[in-house]
Amino acid sequence: MARAIRPDTITTSRLVLEPLALHHAPQVTRFCRLWEVARYTANIPHPYPAGCAEAFAKDAASKRESGGGWVYAVTVADGGEMIGVIDITLCDKDRSGELGYAFAPWSWGNGYASEAARALIEFAFRVLRLDKIEAYVMVENEASERLLARIGMRRVGERMMPAPARERDVLCGIFQVFWSQVRR
């Protein structure tokens, strides 16, 4: 089970999720510049431009201050290496949020993304008091679809969605989980 140390930090047995800040920008650039990371995302441009990670960190701080979302740097508790980013963007119209994430390829296959996603979903339901969380995944991203299913999200359909970094719309699977499905 995830544990909130303070409102800003979430820990699991192997990970620390801390608010994304400017000092994380070099690590974000290190993995977001890679095509194997950018290719399945709607918003990570490729090639990754200079200053993009800094702008992302500033936008994350602004979202957090306005109450519009929570963006975290995911670090390995043992050693502190940053291996990804994960976020919940809040929806204005109802008590819901959208889950998003990107992880460094050298961290893939270790269960870190699943662990971080479970922790953030628990935080969103217990602390932010959301009723529903959605995620959208490009249909060709089978690994991400498996990850969402593994953490208890259900595929409820598909739709074309804008992918600004790809300059086109892409077909995405829609995944959802409700508070009532995970409460204990």
Q: Count the beta strands.
A: 9
Helix and strand composition category? alpha+beta
The whole-angstrom Rg is 15 Å
Query: Low-confidence segments, ≥5 residues, pLDDT <50?
Result: none
Per CATH, the class reads Alpha Beta
**So what's the overall shape?**
globular
Strand order of the largest sheet: 1-2-3-4-5-6-7-9-8
Oligomerization status of the protein chains? single chain
Structure description:
This protein has 184 residues and is an alpha+beta fold. It has a single domain (3-131), classed as Aminopeptidase (3-Layer(aba) Sandwich). The chain is built from 6 helices and 9 strands. Strands 1-2-3-4-5-6-7-9-8 form a 9-stranded mixed β-sheet, sandwiched between helices. A hairpin with a 4-residue loop joins strand 8 and strand 9 (168-178). The longest helix is centred in the N-terminal third of the chain and has 15 residues, at 52-66. It is globular, with a radius of gyration of 15 Å.
